[in-house]
């Protein structure tokens, strides 16, 4: 890294959204070949800062400098022209176009009159393969998983040959194998002399990857750490403004051996085969496995979104066969999908309306009464999960990514369910809030006798929250391990065996 002029600098940047101060007098620099991480709790201002740096948002006050020269971005194209690209936190691809088309969108090769599709596709494929080998460049984006879409966005940012690439939570959707590959890819970019701003709630990878770590809290710059200084405790303390809660939550024994959901020999062509397991009353069952292991497909099948080719599901001893998610919901089986954004948000409605929408039937009575009750319950749950918001009447899109997640989770927790299947529930959620969500889940199992299946890419999370962990690999169950016997290495070995 050179000690000369930084390739990029933001000086005294502030951003107001109406009455909300998202950023307040923040200054950061980025050197050539440097990976500079920005960390902070949900709503701290990370994405806002990145969106300003790449020209998607204009700062309210402050200055941006590229190679020491003051510059103004009116639109993202202006930032691109200066060599700045972003892989954004939210998926921002055209679903009906192919992977290659999305990567090269707006940058087709060939003359003005004739686009050289072959060269364009080859170029896109080259960039894609540096990030991931398994994605088919001619596949439609809509057919890809969320994780794969995230990787396509990264390839798209890299394909611009930008000198400065912003990664806003690129690993949130990834499991350990893809995460590993992506981290080495970013390390390589830095070795080639390109620079990166990097955002993640996974503090281990932040420490491993970064040359420098900046901490934001409530829109303010509250510290800068070297990787050596950046212990987990130090990072969490700076982010939260107080030391972390210590000690694992007390483990408990599940009082009953009563089975609520039983899956027997469940199979579906090309997705999974011969799955058998039982979920007990009040139990949290973790499901671990790589992307493509069939975790989500299994959940969708139990939920009635797809049909099994063979096998049986029993609920409280009775065979059930849900022809649609609606039937599953009516029977008390709820699935909270990983693609919460596409399937779950009504952008024009308020936070309160978004949260309460599927449960409006519960709040009968006069409209104003119903509203008050609804708001009170939404607010109670949101505060428990440490959601940061101004007013429940604000539009949901004004919340940070992690805070939107909390409200969607709250929405489903408001339903009376017997079995709740959650796909990546704490993805993109900061460490302290994660802790709170896990205690909410635990309390639901204890107080309401709810049984929960948690699908997660993060083994640490499963080891924290689950009573037993089921390991899937290539569509089959490799084993079920009791929490007390489980280690990260053991689970990995099981998955790979
Ligand atoms: N368009 C908007 N309108 C109003 N408020 C907004 C808007 N965008 C962001 N905010 C507010 O600005 C603050 C910072 O949000 P930002 O998205 O930058 O957080 P973040 O650090 O990226 O959080 P996360 O980890 O959840 O992604 C939040 O309080 C958010 O509610
Ligand atoms: Mg964000």
Automatic annotation (TrEMBL):
<dbReference type="Pfam" id="PF00005">
    <property type="entry name" value="ABC_tran"/>
</dbReference>
<keyword id="KW-0677">Repeat</keyword>
<keyword id="KW-1278">Translocase</keyword>
<keyword id="KW-1003">Cell membrane</keyword>
<dbReference type="InterPro" id="IPR050107">
    <property type="entry name" value="ABC_carbohydrate_import_ATPase"/>
</dbReference>
<keyword id="KW-0813">Transport</keyword>
<dbReference type="GO" id="GO:0005524">
    <property type="term" value="F:ATP binding"/>
</dbReference>
<keyword id="KW-0472">Membrane</keyword>
<feature type="domain" description="ABC transporter">
    <location>
        <begin position="255"/>
        <end position="497"/>
    </location>
</feature>
<feature type="domain" description="ABC transporter">
    <location>
        <begin position="8"/>
        <end position="243"/>
    </location>
</feature>
<dbReference type="InterPro" id="IPR003593">
    <property type="entry name" value="AAA+_ATPase"/>
</dbReference>
<dbReference type="InterPro" id="IPR017871">
    <property type="entry name" value="ABC_transporter-like_CS"/>
</dbReference>
<keyword id="KW-0547">Nucleotide-binding</keyword>
<dbReference type="GO" id="GO:0016887">
    <property type="term" value="F:ATP hydrolysis activity"/>
</dbReference>
<protein>
    <submittedName>
        <fullName>Sugar ABC transporter ATP-binding protein</fullName>
    </submittedName>
</protein>
<dbReference type="InterPro" id="IPR027417">
    <property type="entry name" value="P-loop_NTPase"/>
</dbReference>
<dbReference type="InterPro" id="IPR003439">
    <property type="entry name" value="ABC_transporter-like_ATP-bd"/>
</dbReference>
<keyword id="KW-0762">Sugar transport</keyword>
<keyword id="KW-0067">ATP-binding</keyword>
